[in-house]
């Protein structure tokens, strides 16, 4: 039996990935800590080989070297987190595993993407604390400037900050101070992106390339509170003008052509205005996170495992045939609430009656969860289904915390 090692997968996709892999004759090995999952979800791991969760190539390499028998069973390695493609690429090269193309690792860098398609991204500069000077030539002198500061490689809005640089302050000092106070480990060792702040709707273009041919599955429209994404509507093609949607499609096609990204999914994030759209995060090589696999499956009347099988196997060269999708105009509207709490609290459990929608616990029981607005690490759970049903059923969800029962907060 040939095995596929999966390093990095979210709590929604993991419900379906074993069926997706096994249905084509492979066996999954999951790099994940099962203890972080709610009791009702732990049946996922029955009969599945699990190893510790890794996000560092050296640590994973050491583990595989000391577990040679397990390493010998691995045919392929992949991830559902684009920031882990560099780890996957390094391990594949070291151990001779089949893996997604090396360009996936390059595309995980916002700096690399910005250089490939500069006409499609907001004004931006790459900076590091190691730089002798932090030069941001596109700032407008003599007035205040709003900018977004974020790591070049990362996801979930971790360490992403909205900064206002006053007219009478030194931009370099503001940015250096913000990097040092970002709260992440060793901020001085990474590259940061300073990007012009764009005001508009947060949308994503979902789709994939197969043998260089691009298929657009539809637009996702997300709601945010601060830096926390709290709801997703799919497909939401009608919420933006057709000319703006065409601009998004052009940006994706240009990125795919210039990077020679021939086989894989994408979840390209844009800020859309009434007149145009700016690519702010490419997310190449993966499906959208959170509940998007369920929403695409529901919208197109497919099993989530069927969609996930294509996502996993296409970049590995293991997909047999082509999965055909109906025209997006025939899709039924879906909605997912990625709900939070409005205060810091320890999550103890959930009270969920029988629902037509799909509920996924996200927070680890016993963990202290940050309030809504900070980042996507504020997520408590997700309720996903057809839009009219989810709107009604969200009121039936209760979160049990150390501060008593609470209702979901998503706006």
From TrEMBL:
SUPFAM superfamilies: Glutathione synthetase ATP-binding domain-like. Gene3D superfamilies: 3.40.50.20, ATP-grasp fold, B domain. This is ATP-grasp domain-containing protein.
